[in-house]
Amino acid sequence: MMNKYLILLLMIVNCVLLFSKSKTDANIFGDVKSNGKHLPGVTIYVKNTKIGTFTDKTGHFSLVNLPEGENTVVARFIGYKSSEKKIMMEKNKLVELNFELEEEPIGLGEVVVTGTRTEKRNIESPIIVNTIDKAKLESLHANSVSEGLCYQPGLRLETDCQTCNYTQLRMNGLGGAYSQILINGKSLFSPILGLYGLEQISSNMIERIEVVRGGGSALYGPFAVGGVVNLITKFPGENLYDVTCDYSNINNNSTESILNAGVSLFSDSRKEAVSFFATKRTRDAYDHNGDGFSEMPKLEINSFGMNLYYRPDYMHSIEANVSSVYEYRRGGDKIDFPAHEAEQSEERSHNIFFGSIDYIYYYDDFKSSLKVYSGFQNIYRRHYTGIIPDIINQDSTKYVSHFMNPPYGTTKNQVSQLGFQLNQNLNTLFGEITSSFGAEYLHDEIKDEIDTYNYQINQTTKDLGTFLQLDWDIDSGLNLLLGIRADKHNYVKEIVINPRIAVLYNIFDNTQLRLTYSTGFRPPQAFDTDIHIAFAGGGIQKIILSENLKKETSQSVSTSINFDFPSEHFIYGFTLDGFYTQLSDVFILEEIDRDIKGNSILEKRNGDKASVYGTTLEARFNYERQFQMEAGYTLQKSIYNKPIFWSKNLKGETDYMRTPDSYGYLTLSYSTGLPIKASLSCIYTGQMRVPHYVSINMVGNPQNDILHISHSFFDIGGRISYKLPFDLSDLTIVLYTGIQNLLNSYQNDFDKGKYRDSNYIYGPSKPRTIYLGIKLE
Question: Which of 105, 440, 466, 609 has the fewest other C-beta atoms within 10 Å?
Answer without folding.
Answer: 609
